[in-house]
Amino acid sequence: MRLEFWLLLLFLALGAWLPLTRSVSVTEPPALATEPTLPAAPTEPTLSFRIQSAVYLFIIVVDGLRPDALQRAQTPNIDRLWQSGLYSWQAQTVSPSLTLPAVASLFTGLRPERHRVLWNSWMPERGQIAVPTVFDLAHEAQISTAAFVGKRKLQHLFQPQIPLQIIRGEAGHVLDSALEYISQHRPRLVFLHLSDVDDAGHRHGWMTLQQLRAVERVDQAVGRLMQKLSELEMLKGSVIILTSDHGGHGRIHGTDDPRDMTIPWILWTPEIETGQEIARTIYIYDTAATALAALGLTIPEEWEGLPLLEAFPEATLQSERP
């Protein structure tokens, strides 16, 4: 009887102690194929960050970037963003996983069947997108905007009143034009579309050495942007969202293959010190709602996209406007 009594006490003591222990895990960009991985920063459970409305918001779309490309390429500047920001390596684009429908969803908070941009080439007879975009709503709120893109077909997504430059060539050329304009005008909402990775994927194949070199060129451009914003004393008031429109496999994309549909999604702001993985699934059309929340604007009720509440817990829908 005495032995059973002491065994019972030992069992109860162990039961009280075990819940206090936990393991520390690391999170990294996932491999969509069997490939080496880069070390990643330890993470804690996702926290809520009460971020003030951004003075400046930069949305960067790296055309054709798969999350696992960030494992194999050397990307110290993009690493800085996700290691001190909020991120997802399992974010999803829309179907069809093509640039124009995807970026239209990113701008409008809607799926392609609702914004109706279902084509993927420059077709001037189709005119401009027929539903309001983040840029339209910002313009109505008297927030200055600018866009710098590497493909002319994206002109379909901008109304004439939005400053737009189409710059063909590598990311460095796009940045040259963007940084000159930003230095002179300091727009509050900026869109950068960098096509290097997609161009290399179609020419040489996804995850080839040539494409990884293109990822590194884009990373250098991101570093130049961060450095210039710091010099202009704009970085402390900035929110940066870096994502992609689609991935790819072989030399193609546009299918429902996970390699085409899965994209990285990163939100950086100086107010976040340690990288935090986003718990829920992020969709590309959540970017629009998150952008409006970052700018302190209300989100149209009809939008399907949701703001990233971990960063902007006080974001409101249009229907809640007094």
The gross shape turns out to be globular
Tally the helices: what do you get?
11
CATH architecture: 3-Layer(aba) Sandwich
Radius of gyration: 22 Å
How does the helix and strand content classify structurally?
alpha/beta
Strand order of the largest sheet: 4-3-5-1-6-7-2-8
Helix share, percent: 25-40%
Number of folding domains?
1
What is the mean pLDDT? 88
Approximately how much beta-strand content do the residues carry?
A: 5-15%
CATH top level class name: Alpha Beta
Biggest sheet character: 8 strands, mixed
Question: What is the ordering of alpha helices and beta strands?
Answer: HEHHEHHHEEHEHHEHEEH
Low-confidence spans: pLDDT under 50, at least 5 residues?
7-26, 34-39, 41-47
Terminal CA distance reads 71 Å
Q: In the CATH scheme, what's the topology name?
A: Alkaline Phosphatase, subunit A
CATH homologous superfamily grouping:
Alkaline Phosphatase, subunit A
Query: How many beta-strand segments?
Result: 8
What features would you describe in this structure?
This protein is of the alpha/beta class. The protein has one domain (29-320): 3-Layer(aba) Sandwich (Alkaline Phosphatase, subunit A). 34% of the residues lie in helices and 14% in strands. It is built from eleven helices and eight strands. The chain has helices spanning 2-17, 69-72, 76-83, 99-108, 112-115, 134-140, 171-185, 196-204, 209-231, 258-261, 286-294; strands spanning 56-62, 85-92, 145-149, 164-166, 189-194, 238-243, 262-268, 276-277. Helix 7 runs parallel beside helix 9 (209-231) and helix 8 packs antiparallel against helix 9 (209-231).
